[in-house]
Design goal:
Number of helices: 15
Oligomer: single chain
Largest sheet: none
Shape: globular
Distance between the termini: 44 Å
Number of strands: 0
Length: 299
């Protein structure tokens, strides 16, 4: 199998061109916010919620930013960790909490304009199932943040510690992001991730389910369109279409975490990024499996 290095390089450069500026802006803004105590001021505005959930200031702000940009949110967390305002456990908790904000963003950008119009009420149910998984992860994250929060030490940390310049973080992030993302593109061309589809082909389910799930590995939109056609022709029921799409999501997550999330998180957090991706992947897969089992048993 041949490898197109120029194509992999072009995809990597395009990814960096869109991602690095966001990282730079978010890191610089976070550094300034920490230095000037703006994190504390933002926290005061959300104090009623923070008091009830016992979530740290930085983690709460990160979740709010994630509704707009996940890249900016994680860049803020990386800078705050670099400045020792939060610790690694709070970053892990924040990554779980960010599941719901990220899902909301994905819902109005993808599910509402594309999935629901094509699948109708089946699309509504599928969207709700995906949202249920995201909400559950965020609840888990809130529980972890409440247990691990260093909120009581934050004000002192901000006042006594001079934040590191964001340039160091951005420089390291850019280099690591290029290496990991480029490596993943080469691995993709070599077919390293295709093993996922062949693995799930051994599951004892209808061929139509495996077909939709496998198509979703290549293109989620194509899987939605294919499922809609099968549903209209009677080739698959609503129940098994939901199972197929959720199974496809499991396959996509299995490879997506490695192809996209891992390079990004490692570039920002180093070895901690591997732990963040692994924990989120495991919990997501377990929750997806529970949802699939629920659909099979209840519908």
């Amino acid at each position: 199998m041949t490898v197109d290095i120029y194509s992999a390089l072009a995809v990597t450069v395009r990814f960096l061109a869109f991602t690095i500026p966001v990282v730079v802006i978010a890191s610089a803004a976070t550094s300034v916010m920490i230095r000037r105590g703006l994190m504390n001021r933002l926290a005061l505005l959300a104090s009623p919620i923070l008091e009830r959930l016992h979530v740290g200031h930085v983690v709460a702000t990160s979740a709010a930013v994630c509704f707009i940009s996940a890249t900016a949110s994680y860049s803020m967390l990386a800078q705050a960790l670099k400045d020792r305002v939060i610790d690694e456990r709070e970053v892990i908790a924040a990554s779980f909490i960010n599941s719901f904000p990220s899902s909301v963003s994905h819902t109005y950008r993808f599910f509402i304009p594309f999935v629901i119009p094509i699948l109708g009420w089946t699309g509504v149910v599928y969207t709700a199932l995906r949202m249920l998984v995201a909400v559950t992860k965020s609840v888990i994250g809130v529980a972890m943040a409440a247990k691990w929060s260093t909120n009581s030490r934050m004000a002192q940390a901000v006042k006594s510690h001079t934040p590191h310049t964001s340039f160091t973080l951005v420089k390291r992030t850019g280099v690591m992001m290029f290496i990991t993302y480029f490596s993943v593109q080469i691995a993709t061309q070599l077919g390293v991730f295709d093993i996922a589809s062949s693995f799930f082909s051994f599951l004892p389910v209808e061929p139509s389910i495996i077909a939709i799930a496998t198509i979703e590995l290549v293109s989620t939109k194509a899987a939605i369109v294919t499922g809609s056609g099968m549903l209209e022709s009677g080739g698959i029921s609503v129940k098994w279409l939901l199972v197929a799409l959720m199974l496809g999501n499991v396959i996509t997550l299995s490879t997506g975490y490695v192809k996209h999330s891992l390079p990004f998180h490692v570039s920002l957090f180093g070895r901690l990024g591997v732990k963040i991706v692994a924990l989120n992947a495991i919990v997501s897969l377990v929750l997806d499996a529970m949802v699939i089992a629920g659909v099979i048993l209840l519908l």
